[in-house]
Amino acid sequence: xxxxxxxxxxxxxxxxxxxxxxRVVDLVPNEKLVAVKNVSxxxxxxxxxxxxxxxxxxVLMVEAMAQAGCIYFYYSKGLQxxxxxxxxxxxxxxxxxxxxxxxxxxxxxxxxxxxKANGFLDCRxxxxxxxxxxxxxxxxxxxxx
Length: 145
What we know:
Strand content: 35-45%
Oligomer: single chain
C-alpha cells in the first residue's frame, strides 16, 4: 500500500513546518512501513543548524521516525480517524551519518511488539544504502471518545 500526503494528513495531525513525512511508499500492516522525507534547504531549522554547514538535527530524524511509526501503528492496529496516537518513549537512538539538504531520508519501520493499547517499533533512517539513524520507539493509542 502507498499513501500520498493527503492520506497521511488524515492520520497524523502534524502540518507544515513540522510534518516530516512526504510519502509512504510501502505499507504492510503488522509487517513493515517504508516512508520518505525529502530534505530541503528551505526548512527553517537549517537557518540555525548550522548556518555554514547545514545538518538535519538528530531529534528531527527521531521525530520523522515517530510520525512514520504513527502511520504504521494506525494501520496495524486498525484504528479509526479520531483515535489519538501518541509518542511514549525512545528507548534507544544511534546516529551514524549526517543528513543534509538534498538528501532523501528513507524511513523503515518494523514491529518489535504490539500490545492492545501500545507498541514498540524498530525504526531506521537511510540515505541511499547508508544507515543514518536507528531507534526503538514506543507509541500508545487513546481511542476516540
